[in-house]
Design brief:
The complex is a heterodimer of chains A (about 260) and B (about 190). In chain A, about 15% of the residues lie in helices and about 20% in strands. Chain A is an alpha+beta fold. Chain A is globular. The chains are: A alpha+beta (about 260), B mainly beta (about 190). The structure holds fe (iii) ion. Chain B: It holds the Pfam family Dioxygenase_C.
Chain lengths: ~260, ~190
């Protein structure tokens, strides 16, 4: 029998209750999802069972440094996903802006941000996406940019649609944009997803719910910001991203 | 001031293939380098099945142990917006390859130099559908056995777990093989940087 939404909802609620009980008993907050999050069925065979091996306190560690990207790695229009084809893509034009920071609050400068997303109908330009929604010949859904000196970034795109997937019967992903980020250390590498405020699908989605901490989950939801909206042109969303993990500069400055 | 809280990780999902991989993503060494090495392997899940939708990224020092890196891993063509490939001069130290339908990946790179107090290694970050938070591991090379005994990470591991981090050399082709087992028997050692 296929899993129902009710089955998934029950598992999600149990894991959230367990987390809240552990917090009430004094356990520290957990920002990242557990790799073995049962309601997301694909995680079952793809997470390690052995504990991760800790590495700390050595400034010679390769991972405290990072690959660099520069002006040759992006073109001037890569941050505008509505200008990659001859015509205008269909859908609601939006801008997404924010800052990329490390966990001490300092801007991450000149690093690469990549994003990808479904089109306004909820279809990816990917052969394996067979959701029967139309492809848009004027929208690929891939963007890149380098962060500015203050860690800022800015994309122009189309609001993606929700789409179905096969985790369980009648499973739908809330609208989201995938983000890939580099910091000032490889340890800060992050791939995540940005959501849109007040989406009614949030409660039904085991991927968003894999972040069991309520405030961490909220951090994945952009804010509608009217001051970023442009008259007769686009709606503005703000989303700041904070990278985890140590970097070489922390050790140089004696932070640890 | 309270420091900002880290943004949670999410899975890369199944549909990154038209966005993240780029032509020449595994060609870290320029074509004329005769000292380049080929490193390849499979990614397997807990049932021993190949993972056909994993993304493997690697970051390393150059042969002198330098970690400055260089931009230009994903150089773009300002004329048509396509990918140009690396410039054939600078060593960027960064590779990104997706696994194929058989779960296999490969890169061609220069041998990494050692950092003070460490055996030489290549750092690896694995993403996949089904993996909610990426995994870090490392590739060490079999000819450095002496340095391995003194390496702070390798020396801290039980021998059977340590060997999951050491590539095997193919005497015929001169290439190195490094399989990544996400779960189960011979599960790869994954790292947590604190
Ligand atoms: Fe998606």
């Amino acid at each position: 029998m296929p899993l129902s939404q009710q089955d998934i909802d029950r598992e999600v609620a149990e894991l959230r209750d367990a987390y809240e009980k552990s917090r009430a008993a004094g356990a520290p907050a957990v920002r990242h999802p557990a790799r073995n999050y049962a309601p997301y069925r694909s995680s079952a065979l793809r997470h390690p069972r052995q504990p991760l091996v800790p590495v700390h306190g050595d400034p010679e560690t390769v991972e405290l440094h990072t690959p660099v990207f520069g002006t040759t790695d992006v073109t001037d229009i890569d941050h505008d996903l509505t200008r990659q084809h001859h015509g205008e893509p269909l859908g609601e034009r939006i801008t997404v802006s924010g800052r990329l920071l490390d966990s001490t609050g300092r801007p991450v400068r000149g690093q690469l941000i990549e994003l990808w997303q479904a089109n306004s109908a909820g279809r990816y330009a990917h052969l394996r996406d067979q959701h029967p929604a139309p492809l848009d010949p004027n929208f690929t859904g891939v963007g890149r940019t380098l962060t500015g000196d203050d860690g800022s970034y800015n994309f122009t795109t189309i609001k993606p649609g929700a789409y179905p997937w096969r985790n369980h019967e009648n499973a739908w992903r809330p609208a989201h944009i995938h983000f890939s980020l580099f910091g000032s250390a490889f340890t800060q590498r992050l791939i995540t997803q940005m959501y849109f405020p007040n989406d009614p699908l949030f409660d039904y989605d085991p991927i968003l719910q894999s972040v069991t901490d309520e405030s961490a989950r909220q951090a994945l939801v952009a804010t509608y910001d009217h001051s970023l909206s442009q008259p007769e042109w686009s709606l503005g969303y703000r989303w700041d991203i904070v990278l985890d993990g140590p970097s070489a500069t922390w050790f140089e400055e004696g932070r640890r | 001031m309270t420091s900002p809280q880290p943004t949670p990780s999410h899975t890369v999902g199944p549909f990154y293939g038209y966005a993240l991989p780029f032509p020449g993503g595994g060609e870290v060494a320029s074509a004329d380098r005769t000292d380049a090495v080929v490193l390849h392997g499979h990614v397997y899940d807990g049932a021993g099945a190949p993972v056909p939708d994993a993304l493997v990224e690697m970051w390393q020092a150059d042969p002198d142990g330098d970690l400055t890196g260089a931009p230009g891993s994903m150089r773009r063509d300002p004329v048509d917006g396509g990918f140009l490939g690396r410039n054939g001069v600078d060593f960027t130290g960064f590779a990104r390859v997706a696994t194929d339908a058989a779960g296999q990946w490969s890169i061609r790179t220069l041998p990494p130099g050692a950092r003070p107090g460490h055996a030489p290694y290549i750092s690896v970050c694995v993403f996949a559908r089904g993996l909610l938070h990426h995994l870090f591991t490392r590739v060490y090379f079999p000819q450095d056995a002496e340095a391995h005994a003194a390496d702070p990470l390798l020396a801290s591991l039980d021998p059977d777990r340590r060997e999951t981090l050491v590539a095997t050399a193919d005497r015929v082709t001169g290439s190195y093989r490094f399989d990544i087992r996400l779960q189960g028997e011979k599960e790869t050692v994954f790292l947590d940087f604190q």
